[in-house]
Amino acid sequence: MLPVPEISEEEKEDVYRYIRTHNLTEALEAVLSGLVVTRPPNSIEYIEGNLADLKNLPYNQIKWDMLIPEELRPKQRIAVPNVWDMVFANNQRNSTDDKDVPPELYDRACKHYNQRILRLTFSAVKSFIEITRRLEEEEKRKMLLARNYNHARMCTATFRNWKTWTKDRVGRTKDATERMREVFSNYVQQVIFDSWYSSAVDAKKTREYFQRLESGDKAQQQGGTNRDEDVAGVEDLHAEGEDRVSRLPVEVAAHIFTSLSLQDMAQCALVCRSWKVIIQSSPLWNKVDLSPFGPSLSDKKLINVLTIGRPFVVHLNLQGCNCLSSDGFGFIAQCRNLQDVNFSFTNVTDEAIEDIGFSSGSQMLYLNIANSKISDKALRSISSFMPHLQYLNVGYCPLVTDKGLYHLSKGRLSTQFRHLDLSATLNISAAAYKYVGSSFVNLRSFYCNNNRNIDNQALQLVVKGCRKLRSVSLRMCPALSDESLVQLSTLSFLTWLRLEENSRVSDKTLSAIGDRCSSIRHLYVTDCARITEISMRSFALHRSLVVINLADCIRISDTAVRALVEGASGPIVRELNLTNCIRVTDASILRISQRCTSLRYLSLCHLELLTEASMDFISHIKTLHSLDVTGCNVQDGGLHNLSGCSHRLSQLVLVANTQLSDLGVQKLVSSVPNIESINLSFCVSLSDGAFKNIAYSCRRLTVLGLAGCTLVGDMTLQYISGACPFLTQLDVSGIVDLTDKSLKFIRKGCKRLRVLIMLYCRNMTKGTVSKLKQWIEVVEWSSNIPPPSFKLHLNSVANLVPIPQLPSQPHPHPNNTSHNNPPQLTMTKPVK
Q1: What is the rounded CA–CA span in Å between residue 375 and residue 394?
Q2: Is 87's pLDDT higher than 70?
Q3: CA of 42: how far to CAs of 32, 48, 72, 684, in Å?
Q4: Model confidence over 380-392: pLDDT tens digits?
Q5: CA–CA separation, 626 vs 828, rounded Å?
């Protein structure tokens, strides 16, 4: 290759322009690339032929690999010398200017350098991270080993300490247990011995007493015994020489006196000055109950009583005190802190209500003015002066009209008003009940018993407005039918319902209530003849039903009872009344005994299909407290079977079971020493021997009924008066053999007797009975001949003594009741 002569810069520019203009660089690169890859045998012909083909192509269509076959085409561009390098090779080697270097080489060099730097950096970072991770893992492993080692040491030390403490504790526990066992054994032995000794002495005295009664020398011995006891008491009193009650703190002594009645406290205030100070303290005057005095309470006595505790009186009960006048009621207005007042069965006037409301109306919460002569003016005063009133009873007030109810609804009564009783308000029309529904939207209890004016439209207005009602009583409302009673099912909070003595109530009403009112707890549908098992099935899924009263529902059968007790409420039912459900048989009693594990009160009066097997089933109810089997033809075998549940039984009614004998009663009472009430009226086969066993075994007896037991004489009352000191109510009606001698025994032995019924006792004199009235509060006596219908019109003790109520009461306050709201758990009814 010949050396290129030296040329100037201008000539170089002309040469370069010529090469670019004729596409020599791209054509030469394409030919050389094809020549290097294909390597033809005659290279000159290959170059000439390809240059001839490329000379006519435009510059932008010539590619460096277009002359290379597809199968031999390389992936990277072949570096071949261009025309400029071949022409000016010597000048480029001698020149230091690199501006003619192609830019592709610079890009490849930069990319190669950057990639290398990136690989080095990534490798260094990766190595650093791996080394750091290995160091951290090693540190964690060492920390875990150290922690486990420390935990093991701590556990070992703790276990050693616990083992030492346990050995010491076990030793002390064994010593203490041995000592406690020794002390308990000695105490039990002492208690057993004392109980045995007391029982032996009591039995000996009782046996000697009955022997003296039979021998006829009771009076003399009784006088000597009482005299000995009195002397012993006086000696003990003199031995003491001090008053223990006065030495107690005032709060403790006042709590003791709270158990006494007002009359007893008045007598205790006369004992000494310290007792008088204690009795005049404020806690004893929060509740003043003067209802036991009844008609004997005069204005002077009332003023004397309230003068002592006038600033402290909060609850005042004057029920039945109908001899009070305006002077007495005017003095009540001076009690500024009254919150609970009961004026039922009194002569309270509108002016007295206005004065009391003006003086203490802002604190008044409960007001009972049932069976009084108040009028619309009194209701207007109540609505104006008693804004916080919660309970109002105006039942059996004949002077109350629509205008009074209007004043009550438009007054200042707050949203806390909860209870309204409009029973037997016959001058209030059906249209006036719209005031109740529109004004008392927060009403919880609505009672409208014995009211012929309330009709379907009136009840619908009340239910539509009072959506929070929980207790509804509609007893003896003949104008109501299923049309309005079905609306009660829309009350989602309804828990207490009473629909009694309404022949228009059918299964439609109760089925709707059972399907919608899932929270109902008390259900009373007495004397609703159209009720059948269809409606009872709707209550099968209820989980809160506690009280069920189906008395006189003659269509109720075993199917209905089974649907109730086998439902979700069966184990929690506490009261069940099936009186006069004549289709009920032993099958229902069997399911009741199996399912009703919480049953406490059961009434099965006049169920003639029951047999002795039912008494055996009842004996398996371990929670039963009260049982009424009046007119069920119970025999001695049934009483023997019934003794199985006698450990809890406290009240038993066996009226008109004529086949009972002394032997059956003896078997029963020997297993019920804690029974408190027995009614054996019209058990005509019983004699003095049966009541002798009752007196000997049932020392805690408080109520006894033996009306119509014609074989009983004075000897029975001798037994009862001598062995039953806690007796409070006694019925001996129709026993014609009783004489004045029996009354003397009652006077000496029954110190706590409060009610004595002696109808048709011909052998008693009026003078002896009059003397007895000075010591007994209620004495009913007549010397007429017993009429043939005496059994049908029996007013027995069972109807006079209410059975204790369950904890969930529909009444807001226990003292605010009248005769239109009797005790809700009345288990017995007059004998039919």
Answers
A1: 10
A2: no
A3: 14, 10, 19, 155
A4: 989 888 888 999 9
A5: 10
CA 478, CA 426: separation in Å to the nearest integer? Answer: 13
Strands (E), 510-587: 522-524, 547-549, 575-577
Residue 435 structure tokens: 């005031």
**Secondary structure letter of residue 372 according to DSSP:** S
Q: Does residue 719 contact residue 699 with C-beta atoms inside 8 Å? A: no
Q: Comparing 63-77, 207-221, 451-465, 717-731, which segment has the lowest mean pLDDT?
A: 207-221
- Sign, Cα dihedral of 396, 399, 405, 410: negative
Structure tokens at 62: 């010539």
Q: Is 373 exposed, middle or buried (0-12, 13-18, 19+ CB in 10 A)?
A: middle
How far apart, in Å, do the first and last CA atoms of the chain sit? 153
Residue pair 626/600 in contact (Cβ under 8 Å)? The answer is yes
Closest CA to 366 of 387, 341, 394: 341
Cα(76)–Cα(749) distance, integer angstroms: 135
Q: How far apart are CA 255 and CA 554, in angstroms?
A: 50
CB 463 within 8 A of CB 469: yes
Can you tell me the distance from the alpha carbon of 477 to that of 500, in angstroms, rounded to the nearest whole number? 8
Report how far residue 639's alpha carbon sits from residue 88's, in angstroms, rounded to the nearest whole number.
143
Can you tell me the distance from the alpha carbon of 556 to that of 578, in angstroms, rounded to the nearest whole number?
A: 9
> Under a CB-based contact definition with an 8 Å cutoff, are residues 558 and 583 in contact?
yes
- Taking residues 383-411, what's their average pLDDT? 89
Identify whether the C-beta of residue 708 lies closer than 8 Å to the C-beta of residue 733.
Answer: yes
Joined tokens for residue 355:
């004065």
**Token digits of residue 200:** 């032996």
Tokens of 654: 């066996």
Nearest in space to 245 (alpha carbons), one of 282, 278, 283, 281: 278
Residue 603 near residue 827 (C-beta atoms within 8 A): yes
- The closest alpha carbon to 557, from 523, 540, 582, 537, belongs to 582
Q: How many whole angstroms separate alpha carbon 784 and alpha carbon 489?
A: 52
The tokens describing 611, both together, are: 């047999």
